Amino acid sequence: MYNVQRRLCKMDTRTHGKCCFLGWNMKNIVTLALITAFFILMLSGCLKGNNREMSTSAVMMDTVINVTLYGGGDRNVLNGCIALCEKYDKIFSRTREDSELYRVNAELSQSGKAYASEELCTLIQNAVNIGDLSDGAFDITIGAVSSLWDFTATEPRLPADKNIKDALGKVSYLNVSVADNRITAKKGTMLDLGAIAKGYVADRLKDYLISNGVSHAIINLGGNVLCVGGNADGELFHIGIRKPFSQYDEISAILEIDDQSAVTSGAYERYFILDGITYHHILDPKTGYPAASDIQSVTIISKQSELGDALSTTCFVLGLDKAVKLIESMEGVYAMFIDDKGGIISSNGFEEAVNVSFR
Ligand code: AMP
Ligand code: MG
User: Fold this and answer.
1) Atom of ligand 1 nearest to the CA of 270
2) Which of 8, 18, 211, 218 has minimal Cβ neighbours within 10 Å of its Cβ?
3) 143 phi and psi angles, rounded to 5 deg
4) Which residue, 170, 190, 62, 71, is CA-closest to 124?
């Protein structure tokens, strides 16, 4: 991560805009956070054309978050970004015992009913809509199953098959409805917004930055990237797409975008290997096991990061053929896939919408 980011940014210092990098592994998160903090500290003092930078980063929302302002900035605005992430972590986290979602899940588990804030209700409703769009490949009621798996444990174990089968009885987004700040669901339902919340938060951070006069910034929530404009020299931002399962300094492609979101989902982001089998964190709601996909990674380009986040997970579960059909049926959304043989496939219009160079 460090090497790639530094190499590309160095290269960019001479010739292009700035870059960042998609695809973090939770296992190395604290190390990465420290390295990133150091790296950003070094860069924040640099002057490069109009692109003076100011950055902040933190470990939050189960990942490393980083916001970089270009062309000058205000430390208070960056502090405001961290405060917003903290606010949303306290709403959307499935695992934090003091979160709103934790309380909602406890109530749904007991009675199948819960009141929730407007923002939580909105995100749940939007996620249910993606459930419809994907014919259930995307399903936020996966919480009953995802809570059985621990992909980052030091000594990972498989959940008991019986427990997975039992939990599957509580998995269906069709059981969830939202009206007047009230959520109803089958008793025992557990919601998991891990596949969509980071995108939503990135969109809110962008709104916040724009309302504070920021025109050039990159928001990076653990690989969920959202650009505010381009860089302050009027160039596009460069986003490196990681080669799946590679060491951190290998990339498959560099995308040049401005004002857009780029979100990647991949089997390599959180996984463990047991008896030669790779178990990753993107689950098939039909089986309760990691989705057997012919995609190693999928990157979605969209205006809205919430949609990009939900679609990247969806496409992974759907597999290549259905994913391409879905993306090509939608306006203003593009995808780049790395398939199980390492081939790169892009949806119609991707290469017109995004400057891309392959490595
Ligand atoms: P992402 O990294 O955005 O692809 O999201 C993966 C996360 O979303 C997992 O860690 C789970 O919390 C959750 N998740 C896993 N499988 C699904 C699924 N089929 N539908 C919705 N959420 C899922
Ligand atoms: Mg996602």
Assistant:
1) 10
2) 211
3) -50, -35
4) 190
Domain that holds residue 65: 3-92+196-358
- The confidence score (pLDDT) of residue 72 equals 85
Pocket test for ligand 1, best of 138, 171, 225, 283 (most atoms within 8 A of CB): 283
Give 209-255 pLDDT, tens digit per residue: 999 999 999 999 998 999 999 999 999 999 999 999 887 668 999 99
- Asked if the structure places residue 248 within a domain, the reply is yes
Residue 148 lies in a domain: no
pLDDT at 16: 33
Distance in Å, CA 48 to ligand 2 centroid: 34
Residues 179 and 189: their CA atoms lie apart, in Å, by 17
Does residue 123 form part of some domain?
Answer: no
Atom of ligand 1 nearest to the CA of 263: 3
Full-model pTM: 0.89
Q: What is the CATH number for 303?
A: 3.10.520.10
Q: Which of 88, 105, 176, 93 is nearest to 144 (CA)?
A: 105
Amino acid residing at 206: K
The Cα 12–Cα 177 span in angstroms is: 48
In a domain, 182, yes or no: no
What is the CA(359)–ligand 1 centre distance, in A?
28
Number of domains within the chain: 1
> What is the C-alpha end-to-end distance of the chain, expressed in Å?
16
Instruction: Give the closest ligand to the alpha carbon of residue 134.
Output: 1
Amino acid symbol at 260: Q
| Tokens linked to 231 | 């860089």
Contact present, 257 and 298 (Cβ < 8 Å) = no
Residue owning tokens 């790639």: 4
The letter for the amino acid at 27 is K
pLDDT at 3: 24
CB-based pocket (< 6 A), ligand 1: 138-140, 142, 146, 192, 194-195, 265, 269, 281-283, 285, 309, 312-313, 317
